[in-house]
Amino acid sequence: MSNRDSNTPNGAPPKNLVDTAAANDSFHTLSNALEAAELTHVLKDSGPYTVFAPTDAAFEKLPKGTLENWLKPENKAELISVLKYHVLPGRTSSVEVEQLTAARMMQGQSAPIRKDGDKLSIGGARITERDIASSNGVIHAIDTVIVPTKP
């Protein structure tokens, strides 16, 4: 199911990635984490990007204390790494994602992509909502926070 026009009432142009996520009731935790990591300017002012956006429920599945730890100022670099692991340079629709076996994320590592019937996943996280349009990219909601391997 596509939400391509869900944030474009009366033909208005879509919002940027950050404002689109902030307007969606499923992405409050992600929006707060982007602010804490000081990444909002990147996802507002440049692009295009494809964001595999963990829902609030995805963040709740993390082990207790993980998110709180990432949000500490001394762990900002780790938070940035995790968040950039959810961003793919370029605007990639779900149909295009289905054609990939892996995606090289902004963070630098590749995340595996799997298609099983009509289910699509990246890094082990199932894509639960596809093709949420924004002016500088697209958002695909995922049900799990994906974490890059440590170097």
Automatic annotation (TrEMBL):
Gene3D superfamilies named in the record: FAS1 domain
Xref: Pfam families: Fasciclin
PROSITE patterns xrefs: FAS1
Residue intervals of the FAS1 domain: 14-146
Highest rank taxon of the organism: Bacteria
SMART domains: FAS1
InterPro entries: Adhesion/Biosynth-related (IPR050904), FAS1_dom_sf (IPR036378), FAS1_domain (IPR000782)
Designated name of the protein: Fasciclin domain-containing protein
